[in-house]
Amino acid sequence: MRIDHINIRAPQALLEEVRDFYCAVLGLEEGFRPDFSGHGHWLYCADRPLVHLSLDPDCTAGGGGGHLDHVAFQAAGLDEFLARLEAHGIRYRSSHVPELQLTQLFFSDPAGTGLEVNFPGEAMP
């Protein structure tokens, strides 16, 4: 397992400022983002989208993790991972991104940090 990306949620003006910061300061480049329902940007390092930015007009800093929405991991073995979540009684939601042939699981750690685990090329049973 490895960290796949981080996601930052922010209102429109701040979202654009954050995008510009990561591009200018870290040298990331804006690139392909699937056609999700909400506005956002994916910022790439070489061929990997490391920073995902998502529009959230109601998001304000200062509580919990500020604007950090979640940490994402890439993994293999979807069936085994689902069994592990269920064995621990962890509630989750799943999503499939057809353009990327990717299954995503979303849940939270005990501190409330959002977690996303991505399974490329694997589908829900």
Structural features, described:
This protein is an alpha+beta fold. It has a single domain, classed as 2,3-Dihydroxybiphenyl 1,2-Dioxygenase, domain 1. The chain contains two helices and eight strands, in the order E-H-E-E-E-E-H-E-E-E. It has an eight-stranded mixed β-sheet with strand order 2-3-4-1-5-8-7-6, covered by helices on one side. The chain starts with a strand and ends in a 5-residue tail after the last strand. The mean pLDDT is 88.
Descriptors for this entry?
125 residues; 8-stranded mixed beta sheet
Helices, strands, pairings?
Elements: E1 2-10, H1 12-26, E2 29-31, E3 40-45, E4 48-55, E5 68-74, H2 78-87, E6 93-97, E7 102-108, E8 114-120
Parallel strand pairs: 1-4, 5-8
Antiparallel strand pairs: 1-5, 2-3, 3-4, 6-7, 7-8
Shape: globular
CATH topology assignment: 2,3-Dihydroxybiphenyl 1,2-Dioxygenase, domain 1
Q: Largest sheet, if any?
A: 8 strands, mixed
Helix fraction, binned, reads 10-25%
Q: Structural class, from helix and strand content? A: alpha+beta
Mean pLDDT: 88
Order of helices and strands: EHEEEEHEEE
Q: How many DSSP E strands? A: 8
Question: Numbering strands along the chain, what is their spatial order in the largest sheet?
Answer: 2-3-4-1-5-8-7-6
Low-confidence stretches: none
Supply the number of structural domains: 1
For this structure, what is the CATH class? Alpha Beta
Using the CA coordinates, give the radius of gyration.
15 Å
User: What is the annotated CATH architecture?
Assistant: Roll
Distance between the termini: 21 Å
Within CATH, the superfamily carries the name 2,3-Dihydroxybiphenyl 1,2-Dioxygenase, domain 1
Share in β-strands? 35-45%
Query: Helix count?
Result: 2
